[in-house]
Write a structure and sequence with these properties.
Elements: H1 6-24, E1 31-35, E2 38-42, H2 48-56, E3 73-76, E4 79-83, E5 89-93, H3 112-129, H4 135-148, H5 153-162, E6 179-184, H6 189-200, E7 204-209, H7 214-217, E8 233-238, E9 245-250, H8 254-273, H9 279-289, H10 293-301, E10 311-315, H11 322-332, H12 351-367
Parallel strand pairs: 6-7
Antiparallel strand pairs: 1-2, 3-4, 4-5, 8-9, 8-10
Helix pairs in contact: 3-4, 4-5, 8-9, 11-12
């Protein structure tokens, strides 16, 4: 699902399946049509079960069900195949019984041209899928659906009388490159701005975006991930004995990274409390000093860090963005003990990100203490700083 290869692979599998099934049957199939995994077949009534068993024996993970025609009518895709008395087949536009008939409502906050495009596409489908019937029958179906979606009677009549206006989009010439810009849709205002912009900048096309999206209408139904279970985060560990703090990143779960810090701190404490002046002990302490700036601060200042008050500063789904975010937070967090070798060559183009981080940090400081993980970071991966 979601791969552009899915339709191609599905067609290849179905072609192989059909070749296998047809070769195993001892009688010809008069009619067989396929659209991806939907099939319509004409079979002798006493051969239906046999054909069904052959289809389902091809692969245990590919199992079919079947539907027989009733009163000469058989739904297939968006049509109903109707077998007439002379054994010819006509088609009608079809919607499932559970269908509500909802299109883009006329009263919705969308541009008028978008509503007209939706209606024109709907009318085209109904008329092209309906054969051997009068235009009046198809138009009645269209009128009922448009009325259900609050399209006014004068507009419905005008659309039905004029038919469907087919527009051909002429591709832009090589000399003019079309630029698309989005803008929040405000009824009447957006249309006026679009006309003014088209007159001043003919190569700029304004696309409307909408405030009432599904994400805004419905609350997040997923459980909140505990802070210690999150990955791809930038975190901050405060020092117990001074105002310093350590900023780091981890692509694994935060609790695993904190467990690693705790392990090295315990190892350092064992070496310090051993009171041994042996070269081996000194070598091990120097080795730990080079591991992280956290251990270096602990050795030089004889301070200890409070791992229980670890705070998530940021989170990003792309691991490649984490090093840049870490550098930005190091520069914007006061009294950090991190080494400066990784941030000396940072470009000034990130000044805007620094300002954003500083503003966010100020908001968090005003609403939460350092021992809390701010609520803005507890939402499901919503706090993302642009890079």
């Amino acid at each position: 699902m979601g791969s552009p290869l899915s339709p191609i692979i599905a067609d290849l599998v179905m072609e192989s399946l059909l070749d296998n099934v047809v070769s195993r049957l001892n009688f010809p199939i008069p009619l067989i049509k396929k659209y991806v995994d939907d099939l319509v077949l004409a079979l002798p009534p006493d051969k239906v079960v046999e054909v069904m068993n052959v289809f389902n024996s091809f692969n245990e993970n590919i199992q079919f069900t079947y539907e027989m025609e009733e009163n000469g009518r058989l739904p297939f895709l968006d049509m109903v195949l109707v077998r007439q008395q002379d054994q010819t087949i006509r088609t009608e536009w079809y919607s499932k019984p559970m269908s509500s008939g909802r299109l883009l409502d006329f009263l919705s906050a969308h541009p008028l041209h978008l509503k007209m495009n939706t209606v024109n596409n709907f009318m085209r489908r109904v008329r092209e899928f309906t054969t051997n019937l009068s235009n009046e029958a198809a138009d009645n179906t269209i009128d009922v659906i448009l009325k259900l979606n609050h399209y006014p009677a004068p507009l419905r009549h005008r659309l039905l009388n004029r038919g469907i206006a087919r527009r051909t989009n002429t591709p832009p010439s090589d000399e003019t490159q079309v630029v698309y810009k989005s803008m929040l849709f405000v009824n009447d205002l957006t249309q006026r701005l679009s006309k003014s912009l088209k007159a001043a900048l003919p190569n700029v096309v304004l696309a409307a975006r909408y405030e009432k999206t599904t994400k805004r209408l419905y609350t997040n139904t997923k459980d909140v991930i505990p802070p210690e279970m999150r990955n791809n985060v930038i975190y901050r560990i405060p020092c117990n004995d001074c105002a310093a703090s350590y900023v780091g990143l981890t692509t694994t779960q935060l609790k695993k990274r904190i467990s690693g810090h705790r392990s090295t701190i315990n190892q350092l404490e064992e070496l310090v409390t051993s009171n041994s002046d042996s070269p081996t002990t000194k070598f091990e302490i120097e080795r730990l000093r080079e591991k992280t700036a956290l251990l270096q601060h602990s050795i030089d200042e004889q301070h200890r860090f409070n791992l229980e008050k670890t705070q998530i500063l940021d989170q990003h789904r792309r691991q490649t963005a984490l090093p840049i975010l870490e550098v930005c937070h190091i520069l914007n967090t006061p009294n950090t003990i991190n080494k400066r070798s990784d941030i000396e060559c940072l470009s000034s183009m990130y000044a805007g990100i620094f300002h954003t981080l500083h503003t966010k940090r100020s908001e968090v400081t005003n609403t939460a203490t350092i021992t809390e993980i701010p609520n803005s970071y507890q939402n499901e991966s919503n706090h993302v700083v642009p890079t």
